[in-house]
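Appendix C reproduces, verbatim, an entry submitted by the partner laboratory led by Prof. M.T., so that reviewers can inspect both the input and the predicted structure.
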Amino acid sequence: MKQDMPIERLDYLPGLKRQIYQRSDIFSYSMDAVLLAKFVTLSKRKDQRIIDLCTGTGAVPLLMSLRTPSSIDAVEIQPVLAKLSIKSMRHNNIHNQVNVIEADIRQLQKTVTYGSYHIVTCNPPYFPVTAEKGKNMNEHLSIARHEVLCTLEDVIKAASKLLMAKGIMALVHRPERLVEIVTIMKQYQLEPKRLQYVHPNKNKEANMVLIEAVKEGRPSIKVLPPWIVYGEDHTYTKEFKKHYE
């Protein structure tokens, strides 16, 4: 049986100020990536160095580029995703600001300079590989969703190596892994400073957590008001829509 050819498409990101190339056979950008790009602390300075790990098709750097003029490196291990990301940066005319790097985040020492970044962001694979999960037939989806090529510890360890003292790591993940996230962050000298939960609606538990940590920071954390995505009419709440779009 002949398989259908993957369909490439050009989609708008929320806010309609950036477009992103995606493909029908590859995991598309998610709300998680959009919220991470809006959550991370950025400045209007041009001299900050930013790096996004596990960038996929580039949603996080595409949106961060609207908030800062600083240069952004975007690391992706899968060649097909890296190529789509490069295509998106050129389409949006920000290829001089966002540099896409096809590489393994566990082996960046020959590609970038450790200890030179002010900010690291990451929307990583959420789920550990088990006997039952993580072996999807679609390799691209498996790598995006499960810790096939990098674990949570790999991500946090890489961020710690990349950051200079007092640099910031911003991460989006699943709430059920929060204790593990904080434990590993502290192991690698990253002190959690800001935390925000995202709930599907006011009656449901959080299904997403945003966390920001400072390298060699002092213990002290702020828990921000949660985001409630959907109201009783099953559309975005007024507050969330204004923030998201």
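The chain has one domain: 8-244. Additional entries are available on request from the coordinating office.
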